[in-house]
TrEMBL record:
GO cellular component labels: plasma membrane
Keyword ATP-binding set for record: no
Highest taxon of the lineage: Bacteria
The name this protein goes by in its record: Membrane protein
Biased composition (Low complexity): 13-24
TM helices/strands, residue ranges: 39-59, 65-85, 97-116, 122-144, 151-170, 182-200
InterPro entries, sorted: Acid_resist_chaperone_HdeD, DUF308_memb
Chain positions covered by the region annotation Disordered: 1-24
Keyword Mitochondrion listed: no
Organism this protein belongs to: Streptomyces echinoruber
Any Pfam family hit: DUF308
Biased composition (Pro residues): 1-12
Length: 219
C-alpha cells in the first residue's frame, strides 16, 4: 500500500482537519496531495481490500465469472486510491507509487475485460500484483526512516509479498480453492491496512498537537 511521508511541523499552510498535509505547487497537485495524505483516504483504501475479501469468503460457491469481477473491481478501485495517494509523496518517490497504481488499474481492467479466463490466469494476475506491490512498499518503508509506525507498513508489505508468492507458487485446481485463498489474503491485507490507517491518524494528531503554540514536545 502507499503511505505518505511522516508528518512533521513546518512553516506554511496548516494541514486540513482530517490530516491532509500541505501540497506542492499547482492546483491539481495540491488537491490530490491533500486528499491522498488524509488518513480517511487510507481507511477507504483498506475498506476496498477488506470488503471484497469478506464477500468472497461469504459466497465461496459462486462461479469463476463472479470471482473475476470481484477481483477486477478490487484491483481497479485500489488502483484509483493508490494513484491519488501517490501525490502525497515526495517527487522522487512519486513515480514508483504511480507505477504501482497503473499496475493495479491494468490488472483490474484485464480481469473485468476477460472475466471467463482460467483459474491459473486469475491467480497469476493477482499474485503478480501483490508481489510487486509488496516489494515496492517494503523498499519505500525501509527508505523512509522518518515514516511513523513503519512496523505496520512493513507488515503490510511482507504480507503482500507472502500472499503473492503463495498464490503464484501453489497450484489451484478448483474455483472453490482459489476463492478461499484469495478471500483469506484480501481479508488479512485489509486488516493490516486498517491498522496502517489508524496508525497514520494517530501520527497526524501527534504532529498537530506538537505544532500548537505552547505545547510541550518530547526531547
Amino acid at each position: 500500500m502507499t503511505v505518505p511521508r511522516g508528518p512533521a511541523p513546518r512553516a506554511g499552510p496548516e494541514p486540513l482537519a482530517d490530516g491532509a498535509a500541505p501540497a506542492p505547487d499547482g492546483a491539481l497537485d495540491r488537491q490530490l496531495a491533500r486528499l491522498g495524505s488524509s488518513w480517511t483516504w487510507l481507511l477507504g483504501s483498506a475498506a476496498t481490500t477488506l470488503v471484497p475479501g469478506i464477500l468472497i469468503l461469504a459466497w465461496p460457491d459462486e462461479t469463476l465469472h463472479v470471482l473475476a469481477v470481484l477481483i477486477g473491481l478490487y484491483l481497479l478501485v485500489t488502483g484509483a486510491f493508490r494513484f491519488v495517494a501517490a501525490f502525497a509523496r515526495e517527487h522522487g518517490e512519486r513515480l514508483p507509487a504511480l507505477l504501482v497504481a497503473v499496475l493495479y488499474v491494468l490488472a483490474g481492467v484485464l480481469c473485468l475485460r476477460h472475466p471467463l479466463q482460467t483459474i491459473a490466469a486469475l491467480s497469476l494476475i493477482t499474485g503478480a500484483v501483490w508481489l510487486v506491490t509488496g516489494m515496492l512498499t517494503a523498499w519505500a518503508a525501509i527508505a523512509a526512516k522518518e515514516l511513523p509506525h513503519r512496523g505496520f507498513v512493513l507488515g503490510a508489505a511482507v504480507l503482500g509479498i507472502v500472499a503473492g508468492i503463495v498464490v503464484l507458487a501453489l497450484p489451484v485446481e478448483s474455483t472453490f480453492a482459489l476463492t478461499r485463498l484469495l478471500g483469506l489474503w484480501l481479508v488479512l491485507i485489509g486488516l493490516v491496512e486498517l491498522g496502517v490507517a489508524f496508525a497514520w491518524r494517530a501520527a497526524l494528531r501527534k504532529a498537530r498537537a506538537g505544532s500548537l503554540p505552547g505545547t510541550p514536545t518530547a526531547a
